[in-house]
């Protein structure tokens, strides 16, 4: 029974009164979903929404896809047990077989799998524990802007943590490059930083148990790692006996235009962390790793709900459907088309600092188009005329090739030349450029205006100023056009509400 609109308002009031102050999505999206199919959610008030949140990337096939529902009904109707801890079952065997079928062959041929607790953060914890057990070491290498979950160990490896066991490394990006140059040279410097940290006996960083990275930082603001940089990270870790953990909790199952995001670069990690879409909308998390790392004793990592039979059935159906229908290829094609639409949108809106993404994992960074703020990076016209990699080669080191076109797009603003150094100032060959400051309040306004127009989006990035689009892989051409149209309208409305008048006041401040 669908509640009436006034009953839905009561549900929202009771949620606010009863639930934790830590609740998140409910604050920005005050709706009461009652029905859903594909990309469409219907609220209790009868309004329909295009869902570009997709359960934070969990719903690869959208809501209530027929193959997912049928797989669940089959298990329920069979009389099979729903709770079996880690016992072997036909459902688990079918899921594992389908998952291994999709893995990079070099990993699948000698892989082991550990079923963890039901969330991605549990799988991250298992991966860290496994690496520490296998190497006998404690420290970790992780990256600025990372997000790996909310449990203690996962938080230690995430970007905002402060833990002496974790060495924080620069993650390459263009608009806010920590070295102020972006592109191939910025990625090259990030790689060299990592090498130097590991090889310098006085760096204070002992040999680590593992390096953990996301092929695309999602919560960090939709930052795709350059393929060549990922290959360098694989070379650096392999040469030093450091297990490489790839966190594909959000990027996996076709999201980025390849079944697994590591396939873009061709690297094979030692440990792969998987959750979200692999459960077909239900809780499921696993760690897949090289068999020579399988040295932990029985019970070293367990979990009461690691045998979720319904999730395994839904997950196997989802994996097979994505594979058989080549939805990763579809994500690549449609993602490129949507990026082109966002590029066009950026041309008319100075508040868009950068557009970036890979496949159907898209982000629009919103900025204050006034004076440049603190930070650095090269983009815009400067990026378009940047010399080729040979001209940027650093001494005695081949520079990285330019990133994939989807990794670095010309829709970047805010970089203005600063005054040239005085004659007595030591010069350097790095560009003196700065991006515009992030605009988190504008991003909140855009999200709110999107909801008013029937579009659900997420915010992310270091400053929560990146509008994120994570549509299901089953999104149609018509729905993709509608998403861009609604986002364009929302952006224009949010800009009007945040544009200062001649007296310097925002519309909301004026009588």
Automatic annotation (TrEMBL):
Please indicate if the UniProt record lists Transferase as a keyword.
yes
Which EC numbers characterise this protein's activity in its record? Answer: 2.6.1.76
What keywords does the record list, in alphabetical order?
Aminotransferase, Pyridoxal phosphate, Transferase
> Quick one: which pathway?
Amine and polyamine biosynthesis; ectoine biosynthesis; L-ectoine from L-aspartate 4-semialdehyde: step 1/3
Classification via SUPFAM superfamilies: PLP-dependent transferases
List compositional bias (Basic and acidic residues) regions by residue number.
426-435
Compositional bias, Low complexity, is annotated for 379-425
Cite a single GO MF annotation. Answer: pyridoxal phosphate binding
Answer whether the UniProt record assigns the keyword Transferase to this protein: yes
Pfam short name (any one): Aminotran_3
Highest taxon listed in the record's lineage? Bacteria
| Region Disordered, annotated ranges | 369-437
* Cofactors that this protein relies on: pyridoxal 5'-phosphate
InterPro entries named among the record's database cross-references:
Aminotrans_3 (IPR005814), Aminotrans_3_PPA_site (IPR049704), Dat (IPR004637), PyrdxlP-dep_Trfase (IPR015424), PyrdxlP-dep_Trfase_major (IPR015421), PyrdxlP-dep_Trfase_small (IPR015422)
Family that this chain belongs to: Belongs to the class-III pyridoxal-phosphate-dependent aminotransferase family.
Its recorded name reads Diaminobutyrate--2-oxoglutarate transaminase
Task: Give the source species.
Answer: Streptomyces aurantiacus JA 4570
